[in-house]
Amino acid sequence: MTESALQRGLWGILIAGLLAVSVAYFGSWGAPPVLSRLHDFSLTNQLGRPVSLESLEGRITVVNVIFSRCPTQCRRLSAQMQRIQARMPSGVRLVTLTADPEYDSPEVLGRYGKEYGASPEKWWFLTGAKAEVFRVAVGDLKFAVVESGDPSAKLEDLFIHSADFGVLDSRGRLRFIVHGEDSDAEDQVLRSVKRLKGIL
């Protein structure tokens, strides 16, 4: 083998090695870990239509928790979700679970959603049996949701819940948690969605 052929061979091995490292590095960067996953559920959206795990499969989903009687933090979270809705690529589902399903009927959530310009084709507000809602929110999505149990509590203190956004992949697996109080929370959500869609 000539010296030039040997050099070409060594360069080829070096380039192949660099490519392998790059694929491994960027491939893992593009595939965030599975933090949790949704199990099948049965809830109802603001249109009174049943929603299950199958209803979400095939789409990336951004989810949070609020309750309509909350006059403080939930309003901020819903305003954030409203802005997220305006920036989302097509085909992404937004889901808001209520921490107060005994009050938040589909009709109540429908009126609440209209305050924030929620498109029923894009943004669902889900309610249902309390045990089922809490199982999905706490057990599957790892949100904190706690009922105060104090009937004399201020409205905003009836339920204590996470101020986070979860981003699920098209198979209902939780891949990102974004803290809603971060100054760039909406940008983080958008970047997370783009990563899952393979745009970034």
List keywords for this structure.
single chain; 200 residues; 2 domains; six-stranded mixed sheet; two-stranded antiparallel sheet
Topology readout:
Blueprint: H1 3-29, E1 36-37, E2 43-44, E3 50-51, H2 53-56, E4 61-66, H3 73-87, E5 93-98, H4 106-115, E6 123-126, H5 130-140, E7 145-147, E8 159-161, E9 164-168, E10 173-179, H6 185-197
Helix pairs in contact: 3-6
Quick overview of this protein structure:
This protein has 200 residues and is of the alpha+beta class. It has six helices and ten strands.
Explain how this protein is built.
This protein has 6 helices and 10 strands; from the N terminus they run αβββαβαβαβαββββα. By secondary structure, it is an alpha+beta fold. A hairpin with a 4-residue loop joins β9 and β10. The N and C termini lie far apart (43 Å).
Q: What proportion strand? A: 15-25%
CATH architecture of the largest domain: 3-Layer(aba) Sandwich
Put simply, the count of helices is: 6
Share of helix, binned: 40-55%
Strand order of the largest sheet: 1-10-9-4-5-6
